[in-house]
C-alpha cells in the first residue's frame, strides 16, 4: 500500500486544527520523535459563550489536577507497558517484507501458537474463518479473538492489518476482499472504489440493518470487538503509528462513500472506536494524576529521605504518559473532524442518530474534555432534526448528563440556550420523543428550580390530561416533583395522617390544581397520571375523609363548596383506580393481566376501603344529602366494597345507617343521576351471594311498596281531574314516576303489575293532549322496562304459560301507542317514542329466535309499511336539518356551543338507531335511499354513520344495495326536476352535486369487479330504465325527460367489467331509436357520453361507428398511440355473455337475441378505414345498424321516417328478426374474423406510412393536430424531467434498498434523463 495517511505529525500539537475539513498528509512513520518541539501549555480557561464561536473548536484539554478515582498509583505499570516507547521505536523502524515473503492475498504461513492461519481464525475447529465470520457466529469469546489477532499482528502486522481491513469491508455487506497486492500498491480511495464495484447491487440489506437474533448478536459482537481491541492494544500497539493510522484513515474514507452500507458501518465503527479511545484517554488522565501526586509527595520529602532514582522514574513515567495522551488526543481529533463533523448531518437518520448517541457517551464518560459548549452545540442543533429517531437520541444523551447533578450544574449555558426547544418538544408529534422531553425537563427541574419559568411548567402541566398514557404519566411525575417534592422547614414534624398532616396540605394542593386546570369531569385522568409516582398520597383516604368531615382548627382556611366537590370526585377516582387497576377509558388498549403482587395489593386496598368507608359513608351522605354532585359521587363508592366485611367486621349497624341515608336521599331528590345512583347502589347491595342480602332486600321491598302505593293513589286523583290538572299533583306524579322508572331499570318490579297504570296514563295523554311532556316520557320509559323484564322471564323459561300471550299483546299495544305519539307536537316526546320504537323493533325482530329460541316466534314483530314510513319521515324531519333550525333540542340556546354539540349528539343517536334497523333487515333496505342521498350534504355530521350503513348493507345484499343507491340518486334527480324544471342545466350546482354523490357511491364498491359485478350491472339496468321511463315533454323527436340521468349513471361505468359493458350497451340500444342515434345536439350529450363510457376498452367488432364519430378526438388518438396486436385472445361467446346473478338474466338474453331496431352488423373494412370526416351520418348508421334488403325478401324494410320512436316498439317483426340472426350467425363470425385480419394489415401499413411522413414532414391535414399533440406532450414530459434535474449535484444518497455503486463509469440509471427517453425516438433534442 502506498504511504497511508498518518497522524504522527500532530503528536505534539494540543490543538488539532482542520478548519478546511480535510485530513492533511502526514510524514512517514520513521520521523524522529525527539526532533519534535514540546507541546505548548494548555489553556485552562473555559469557553464563555457556546454558540458565538464561529471556528470549529475541538481541542481536548486534559486536566492535570484531577483527583484519581479509578486507578491506584501502579495501575499503569504492567509488563507490556513499561517499554512502550521502545516498542514504538522498534515498530517504527521495522520495514515491510518483500512481496515474495508473503502469500498471495496478504496471508502468511501457519505460525505455531497463533490463532490466525492465512489471515483466518482457527480455534475450536473453526478453520478457514475470517474475523467477520468468527464475530458473526459468536462461538468464540471476543477476548480470545482479539488476543489471537494481537499475536498475529506481532508476528506480521501487514497480514493482521489486512485481515482487520477486510473485517470492516465484510461487515458492510461487501462481497469483495482487499488483496495483499491492493494493500501494498493502492491508495485508500482506490481500494474503496474497487470495493464499491464489488458491492452487491441487487440487495439493499447489510449486516447492520438485517433483522433476526443472529444479526442482533452480530451487532453486539461488532461493538465488543472494537472496544476489546482498543482496550487490549492500549499499552503498546495503538502507539506504533501504524495500526491506528491505517484503521482511522480507512474508516474516514469509507464514511465519505456514497454507498450507504459503507458509510453507515464505517461511521458506527469510527464512533465506537472513538468511545474506546475516550476510555483510554480517561485512564491516561487518571494515571497522570496519580503519577503527579506521587512525584509531588516524593519531592516534598526532606533531602535525606528523598529518593532521587524514584523521582527520575516518576518524571520519566509522567513524560511517557503525556506523550501517550498526546497521541490519543490526535487520534480522537482525527476521528472527530474526519468522521463526526461530516456525518452528524448525514442524509440517513440512522447515521445521525449513531453520532449523537456516541457524543453523549463521550461527554458522560470524560466530561472534563468533552462537556463544554464546543461539543454540546451539536446536540442542541440536532434537536431540530426532522426525524424523531435522531431527536430521541439527543434527549437521551442529555438525560445521561442531567442524571449526574454535578454535570447538570455545568450545563446552565446550554440549558438557557436550548430550553425553549426542549419545552416545545413536549408536544412533539412522535410520542416517544415527547415522553423523553418531559423526563428531561423533570431532570432539569431536579438540578435547579430556577431554570424553568412558570410558563414552561404550565406547558407541561396540562399534559397530565393527555390521552396517551406514557405522556400523561411523565407529565404527572413532573407535576409531582414540582408541587409535592419540596418540603419547607415548617412542614417537618407534622403528623403522617389526618387533617393537619403533610398529606393534607398536598391533597389540598391537588384539589387547587384540578380546579385551576378547568378540565372538570376529567379527574380520573389526573389520578391516573399521578398514580405511579403519588399513589401513596392518593390512597390516603383517611386524610380525605378528615378534610370533608372534621371542622377546621382556628386560623385554618376551610374548603369551599367547590373544593369539597372536587375532593369528593378525586377521592372516588382514586378508589376506582385502586380497585380496578386499569387506566380510564381512552387510555390503554384494554385490561392487562395483574401479577400476584398487584392482585394482593388490590385486595388489601379494597379491604381498607370497605372498612374505612363503611363507617364514614353514612356520615358523608348525611352531611351532603342535598348536594347533587357530591351525593352522586358518594353513592358510587359502595360498588367497590367487599360486602363480606359487613358481616365479618360486625358492621351491620353501619349498613342499616347507609340504607337509611339512601332512603333519605331518594326522598329529597328527583334528579335522574341521583335516582339512578341510588338504584345502582341497591342493585349492588342486593346480591344473594352475600349474607346481607335479606337485610337489604327487605329495605328495598319496603321502599318500592311505598313508591308504588303512592303512585297508584296519585294516578287515580290525577286522571279524575281530567282537564283541570293541578301543578302540584303533576309534580308529585312526575317525581314518583321518575323514581319508579329509575328503579325499574335495575330491578324487576313485575310483581307490582305497573303496565296497566302506565298504559292508562299514556292513553290519557293522547286523549287530552295536554299531558306534561316529562310525565309522558317517563311513562314510556317505565312501560318499556316492564316489557323488557317480562321478555327476560319468558326467554329464561321461568314465566307462566299464558305470560307469552300477555307479553305479545302488551308489546303490540305499546308499539301502537308509541307510533301514535310520533305525531305529537312535542319534539322531546316524539324523540322518546322514536327511540323506544327502534329498540322494540330491534329486540322483537326475527333474530330473537336465534340460538335455539324458536319458542319466541309468536313474539316476532314486523313493522308494517305505515310504521316504516312514519319513522323515516321522523328521521328526515328531525335529523337532516340545519344546526340553526334545531330550536327545540337546544332549548333556545343556539349560541351556546355546548348545547349545539349536545343536540348534534342526540341527532346522531337517532340516525344510528334507525340505520341499525336497516342493517339488521328489520325495515326494508330501500328505505335507506332517503338517508343515502344526504351523504354529501351532511357529510361532516353523519358521514361516518351513513358510510358504515352502506358498507353493512352491501355485505348483506350487494344487488339490493346497488338498487337502493340508484334509488337515492333518482329521488335527488326528481327533486331537482321539480325545483329547476324540465330544462336541466348540467353545469348547475344541483346537478353537479348529484354527479359528485354518484362518484362517491362508485368509490364505495371497491376495486374487485368480480365481487360487485351483478350489483353494478343491475344498477345500470335500473338507471337506463329510469332514463327512458318518461317520454319527452317536447313531443316526438325530443329527448326523454330523464335522459340527463345517464350522465350521472356514467360515473359507475368504470366499475363494469369488459364483457358487461357490451351487455349494458346492448341493453341501452333496446331503448334507442334511429333518430336518437343520429342526434348530436347538446340535450343528447348525456346519451352520447354514457355510450362512450360503455365502449371504452371494448373489442373492435362490438364498437359502434356512430359512437366512434361522436368521440373522434379520443378514439382516433387512442388508435394512433397503441400498436396493433397481431393476436388477440377471444373468449368463447358463451363465456363472454355469462352473468353470475339470477337477477341479471336479461344480460344473457341480450347477448343472444338482438333487438330489430339497433341490431349489430359486422364492420366493413372500407368503412372503418375511411376518413371519419368524409363519412356522412346516414352512411355510418346504415353500416352499423341496417340489414341488406336482399337478405330479407319477405320483410318490408321501413324507411327512416317509419322508424318507431317508442323504446318498446319495433319496425320489423320480432320472430323474423330472430330467424335471420340464427341463419346469419356462422357467416357473420367468419366474415368478422377475416375483417379483423384485413384491418390489422391495413393498420400496420398506415403506421408505416405515417412514420415515413413524420420523418419527411409531409402529413395529411386530418392527422396533423393529433401528431402535434402527441409530440408536444412528449416534449413537455422531457422539459418537466429536465426541469427537476440538477446535473451539477448528482451526489444522491439512495435508501437502504437501493445501494448506489461508486464507479468511474456509471451506467445510465433512472436519475439520468437520457435513460428515460432517447433522442432518436422522437427526434427531439434533449437540450
TrEMBL record:
A molecular function GO annotation: chromatin binding
BP-aspect Gene Ontology terms: cell division; chromosome segregation; sister chromatid cohesion
Localization (cell): Nucleus; Chromosome; Chromosome, Centromere
Annotated spans, Disordered: 21-113, 1109-1141
Coiled-coil zones: 281-334
Domain of life of the native organism: Eukaryota
InterPro entries: ARM-type_fold (IPR016024), Cohesin_Scc3/SA (IPR039662), HEAT_SCC3-SA (IPR056396), SCD (IPR020839), STAG (IPR013721)
Cellular compartments per GO CC: chromatin; chromosome, centromeric region; cohesin complex; nucleus
Predominant subcellular localization, coarse grouping: nucleus
Record's keyword annotation contains Cell cycle: yes
Pfam family, one: STAG
Assembly description: Part of the cohesin complex which is composed of a heterodimer between a SMC1 protein (SMC1A or SMC1B) and SMC3, which are attached via their hinge domain, and RAD21 which link them at their heads, and one STAG protein.
Protein role: Component of cohesin complex, a complex required for the cohesion of sister chromatids after DNA replication. The cohesin complex apparently forms a large proteinaceous ring within which sister chromatids can be trapped. At anaphase, the complex is cleaved and dissociates from chromatin, allowing sister chromatids to segregate.
Name of the protein: Cohesin subunit SA
Amino acid at each position: 500500500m502506498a504511504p497511508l495517511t498518518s497522524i504522527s505529525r500532530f503528536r505534539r500539537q494540543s490543538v488539532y486544527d482542520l478548519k478546511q475539513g480535510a485530513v492533511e498528509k502526514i510524514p512517514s512513520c520513521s520521523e524522529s520523535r525527539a526532533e519534535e518541539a514540546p507541546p505548548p501549555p494548555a489553556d485552562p480557561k473555559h469557553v464563555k459563550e457556546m454558540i458565538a464561536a464561529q471556528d470549529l473548536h475541538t481541542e481536548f484539554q486534559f486536566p492535570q489536577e484531577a483527583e484519581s478515582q479509578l486507578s491506584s498509583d501502579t495501575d499503569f505499570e504492567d509488563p507490556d507497558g513499561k517499554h512502550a516507547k521502545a516498542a514504538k521505536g522498534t515498530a517504527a523502524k521495522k520495514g515491510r517484507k518483500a512481496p515474495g515473503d508473503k502469500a498471495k492475498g496478504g496471508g502468511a504461513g501457519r505460525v505455531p501458537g497463533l490463532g490466525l492461519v492465512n489471515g483466518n481464525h482457527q480455534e475450536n475447529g473453526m478453520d478457514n474463518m475470517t474475523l467477520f465470520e468468527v464475530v458473526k457466529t459468536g462461538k468464540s469469546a471476543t477476548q480470545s479473538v482479539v488476543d489471537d489477532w494481537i499475536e498475529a499482528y506481532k508476528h506480521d502486522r501487514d497480514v493482521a492489518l489486512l485481515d482487520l481491513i477486510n473485517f470492516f469491508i465484510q461487515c458492510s455487506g461487501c462481497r469483495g476482499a482487499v488483496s495483499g497486492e491492493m494493500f501494498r500498491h493502492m491508495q485508500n480511495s482506490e481500494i474503496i472504489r474497487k470495493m464499491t464495484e464489488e458491492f452487491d447491487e441487487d440487495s439493499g440489506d447489510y449486516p447492520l440493518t438485517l433483522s433476526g437474533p443472529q444479526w442482533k448478536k452480530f451487532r453486539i459482537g461488532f461493538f465488543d470487538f472494537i472496544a476489546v481491541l482498543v482496550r487490549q492494544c492500549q499499552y503498546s500497539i495503538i502507539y506504533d503509528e501504524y495500526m491506528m493510522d491505517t484503521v482511522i484513515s480507512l474508516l474516514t474514507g469509507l464514511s465519505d462513500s456514497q454507498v450507504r452500507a459503507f458509510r453507515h458501518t464505517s461511521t458506527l465503527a469510527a464512533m465506537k472506536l472513538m468511545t474506546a479511545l475516550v476510555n483510554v484517554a480517561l485512564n491516561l488522565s487518571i494515571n497522570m494524576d496519580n503519577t503527579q501526586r506521587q512525584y509531588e509527595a516524593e519531592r516534598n520529602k526532606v533531602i535525606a529521605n528523598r529518593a532521587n532514582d524514584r523521582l527520575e522514574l516518576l518524571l520519566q513515567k509522567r513524560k511517557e504518559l503525556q506523550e501517550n495522551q498526546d497521541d490519543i488526543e490526535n487520534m480522537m481529533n482525527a476521528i472527530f473532524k474526519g468522521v463526526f463533523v461530516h456525518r452528524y448531518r448525514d442524509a440517513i437518520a440512522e447515521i445521525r442518530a449513531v453520532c449523537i448517541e456516541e457524543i453523549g457517551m463521550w461527554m458522560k464518560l470524560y466530561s472534563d474534555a468533552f462537556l463544554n459548549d464546543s461539543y454540546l452545540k451539536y446536540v442542541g442543533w440536532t434537536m431540530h432534526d426532522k426525524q424523531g429517531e435522531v431527536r430521541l437520541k439527543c434527549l437521551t444523551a442529555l438525560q445521561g448528563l442531567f442524571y449526574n447533578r454535578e454535570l447538570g450544574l455545568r450545563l446552565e449555558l446550554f440549558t438557557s440556550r436550548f430550553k425553549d426547544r426542549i419545552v416545545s418538544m413536549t408536544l412533539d408529534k412522535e410520542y416517544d420523543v415527547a415522553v423523553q422531553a418531559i423526563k428531561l425537563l423533570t431532570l432539569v427541574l431536579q438540578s435547579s428550580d430556577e431554570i424553568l419559568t412558570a410558563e414552561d411548567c404550565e406547558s407541561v402541566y396540562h399534559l397530565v390530561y393527555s390521552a396517551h398514557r406514557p405522556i400523561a404519566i411523565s407529565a404527572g411525575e413532573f407535576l409531582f416533583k414540582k408541587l409535592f417534592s419540596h418540603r419547607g422547614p415548617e412542614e417537618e414534624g407534622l403528623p403522617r395522617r389526618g387533617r393537619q398532616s403533610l398529606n393534607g396540605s398536598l391533597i389540598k394542593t391537588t384539589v387547587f390544581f384540578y380546579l385551576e386546570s378547568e378540565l372538570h369531569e376529567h379527574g380520573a385522568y389526573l389520578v391516573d397520571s399521578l398514580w405511579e409516582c403519588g399513589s401513596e398520597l392518593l390512597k390516603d383516604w383517611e386524610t380525605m375523609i378528615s378534610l370533608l368531615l372534621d371542622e377546621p382548627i382556628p386560623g385554618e382556611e376551610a374548603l369551599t363548596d367547590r373544593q369539597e366537590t372536587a375532593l369528593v370526585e378525586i377521592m372516588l377516582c382514586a378508589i376506582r383506580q385502586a380497585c380496578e387497576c386499569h387506566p380510564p377509558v381512552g387510555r390503554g388498549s384494554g385490561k392487562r393481566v395483574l401479577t400476584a403482587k398487584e392482585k394482593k395489593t388490590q385486595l388489601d386496598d379494597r379491604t381498607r376501603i370497605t372498612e374505612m368507608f363503611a363507617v364514614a359513608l353514612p356520615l358523608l351522605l348525611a352531611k351532603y344529602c342535598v348536594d347533587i354532585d357530591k351525593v352522586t359521587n358518594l353513592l358510587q363508592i359502595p360498588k367497590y366494597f367487599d360486602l363480606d366485611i359487613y358481616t365479618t367486621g360486625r358492621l351491620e349497624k353501619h349498613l342499616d345507617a347507609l340504607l337509611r341515608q339512601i332512603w333519605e336521599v331518594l326522598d329529597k331528590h328527583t334528579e335522574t343521576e341521583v335516582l339512578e345512583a341510588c338504584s345502582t347502589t341497591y342493585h349492588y347491595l342486593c346480591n344473594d351471594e352475600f349474607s346481607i342480602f335479606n337485610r337489604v332486600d327487605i329495605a328495598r321491598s319496603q321502599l318500592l311498596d311505598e313508591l308504588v302505593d303512592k303512585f297508584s293513589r296519585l294516578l287515580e286523583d290525577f286522571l279524575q281531574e281530567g282537564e283541570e290538572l293541578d301543578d302540584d299533583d303533576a309534580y308529585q306524579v312526575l317525581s314518583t314516576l321518575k323514581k319508579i322508572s329509575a328503579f325499574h331499570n335495575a330491578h324487576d318490579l313485575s310483581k307490582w303489575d305497573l303496565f296497566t297504570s302506565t298504559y292508562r296514563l299514556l292513553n290519557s295523554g293522547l286523549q287530552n293532549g295536554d299531558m306534561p311532556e316529562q310525565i309522558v316520557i317517563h311513562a314510556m320509559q317505565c312501560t318499556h322496562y316492564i316489557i323488557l323484564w317480562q321478555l327476560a322471564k319468558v326467554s329464561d323459561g321461568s314465566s307462566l304459560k299464558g305470560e307469552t300471550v300477555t307479553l305479545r299483546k302488551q308489546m303490540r299495544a305499546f308499539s301502537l301507542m308509541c307510533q301514535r305519539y310520533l305525531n305529537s307536537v312535542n319534539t322531546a316526546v316524539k324523540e322518546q317514542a322514536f327511540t323506544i320504537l327502534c329498540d322494540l323493533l330491534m329486540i322483537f325482530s326475527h333474530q330473537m329466535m336465534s340460538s335455539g329460541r324458536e319458542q319466541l316466534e309468536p313474539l316476532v314483530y314486523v313493522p308494517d309499511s305505515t310504521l316504516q314510513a312514519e319513522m323515516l319521515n321522523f328521521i328526515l324531519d328531525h335529523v337532516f336539518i340545519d344546526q340553526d333550525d334545531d330550536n327545540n333540542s337546544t332549548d333556545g340556546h343556539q349560541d351556546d356551543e355546548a348545547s349545539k354539540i349536545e343536540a348534534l349528539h342526540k341527532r346522531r343517536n337517532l340516525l344510528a338507531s334507525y340505520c341499525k334497523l336497516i342493517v339488521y333487515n328489520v325495515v326494508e333496505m330501500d328505505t335507506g335511499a332517503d338517508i343515502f342521498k344526504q351523504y354529501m350534504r351532511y357529510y361532516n355530521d353523519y358521514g361516518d354513520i351513513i358510510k358504515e350503513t352502506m358498507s353493512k348493507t352491501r355485505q348483506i345484499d350487494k344487488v339490493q344495495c346497488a338498487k337502493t343507491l340508484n334509488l337515492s340518486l333518482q329521488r335527488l334527480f326528481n327533486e331537482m326536476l321539480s325545483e329547476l324544471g324540465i330544462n336541466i342545466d348540467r353545469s348547475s350546482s344541483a346537478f353537479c352535486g348529484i354527479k359528485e354523490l354518484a362518484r362517491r357511491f362508485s368509490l364505495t364498491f371497491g376495486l374487485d369487479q368480480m365481487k360487485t359485478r351483478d350489483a353494478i350491472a343491475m344498477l345500470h339496468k335500473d338507471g337506463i330504465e329510469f332514463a327512458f321511463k318518461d317520454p319527452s315533454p317536447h313531443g316526438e323527436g325530443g329527448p326523454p325527460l330523464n335522459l340527463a340521468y345517464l350522465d350521472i349513471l356514467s360515473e359507475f361505468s368504470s366499475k363494469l367489467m369488459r364483457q358487461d359493458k357490451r351487455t349494458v350497451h346492448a341493453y341501452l340500444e333496446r331503448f334507442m331509436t334511429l333518430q336518437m342515434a343520429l342526434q348530436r345536439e347538446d340535450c343528447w350529450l348525456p346519451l352520447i357520453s354514457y355510450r362512450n363510457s360503455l365502449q371504452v376498452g371494448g373489442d373492435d367488432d362490438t364498437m359502434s361507428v356512430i359512437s366512434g364519430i361522436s368521440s373522434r378526438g379520443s378514439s382516433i388518438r387512442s388508435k394512433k398511440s397503441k400498436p396493433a396486436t397481431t393476436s388477440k385472445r377471444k373468449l368463447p361467446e358463451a363465456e363472454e355473455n355469462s352473468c353470475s346473478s339470477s337477477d341479471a338474466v336479461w344480460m344473457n338474453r341480450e347477448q343472444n337475441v338482438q333487438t330489430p331496431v339497433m341490431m349489430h352488423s359486422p364492420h366493413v373494412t372500407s368503412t372503418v378505414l375511411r376518413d371519419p370526416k368524409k363519412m356522412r351520418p346516414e352512411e355510418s348508421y346504415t353500416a352499423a345498424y341496417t340489414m341488406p334488403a336482399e337478405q330479407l325478401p319477405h320483410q318490408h324494410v321501413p324507411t327512416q321516417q317509419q322508424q318507431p320512436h317508442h323504446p318498446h316498439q319495433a319496425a320489423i317483426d320480432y320472430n323474423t328478426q330472430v330467424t335471420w340472426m340464427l341463419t346469419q350467425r356462422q357467416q357473420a363470425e367468419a366474415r368478422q374474423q377475416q375483417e379483423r385480419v384485413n384491418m390489422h394489415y391495413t393498420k400496420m401499413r398506415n403506421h408505416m406510412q405515417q412514420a415515413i411522413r413524420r420523418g419527411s414532414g409531409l402529413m395529411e391535414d386530418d392527422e396533423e393536430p393529433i401528431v402535434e399533440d402527441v409530440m408536444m406532450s412528449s416534449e413537455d414530459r422531457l422539459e418537466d424531467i429536465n426541469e427537476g434535474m440538477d446535473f451539477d449535484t448528482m451526489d444522491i444518497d439512495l435508501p437502504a434498498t437501493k445501494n448506489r455503486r461508486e464507479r468511474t463509469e456509471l451506467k445510465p440509471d433512472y436519475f439520468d434523463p437520457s435513460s428515460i427517453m432517447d433522442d432518436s425516438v422522437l427526434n427531439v433534442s434533449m437540450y
